[in-house]
Design brief:
- By secondary structure, this protein is α+β, with helices and mostly antiparallel strands.
- It is about 30% helix and about 35% strand.
- It contains 2 helices and 5 strands, in the order E-E-E-H-E-E-H.
- Strands 2-3-1-5-4 form a 5-stranded mixed sheet.
- Strand 4 and strand 5 form a beta hairpin.
- The radius of gyration is 13 Å and the shape is globular.
Length: about 100
């Protein structure tokens, strides 16, 4: 019997903290997952670094993450493609870290 993985998407609100000493994904700022990156908020570098760091933290490809809102803001909403149940567990764990 074949087992099919249902791939869908979840939306995740994140808070980007640019210009930190050590990059880190974890903790929360209100209802948002904190993504701290070394890159400064110049020309979208912090945003791209945050999306890459988030992809690595949740175990998906960078291409599975889409920025929905907040291109030039610290508060953003991203959409992550993958196994929704697994992604929710990982995001909850990261928010608690």
């Amino acid at each position: 019997m074949a087992h099919w993985l249902t791939v869908s998407c979840i939306s995740v609100p994140i808070r980007v903290k640019p210009g930190v000493r050590a990059a880190r994904v974890g903790g929360s700022f209100g209802e948002r997952l904190v993504v701290a990156v070394r890159e400064r908020a110049v020309d979208g570098k912090a945003t791209e670094a945050a999306l890459q760091a988030l992809a690595e933290a949740v175990g998906v490809r960078r291409s599975d993450i889409t920025l929905i809102t907040g291109a030039s803001a610290r508060d953003k909403v991203v959409q992550i493609k993958g196994d929704v149940t697994l992604l929710r567990e990982v995001i909850e764990r990261l928010c608690s870290a």
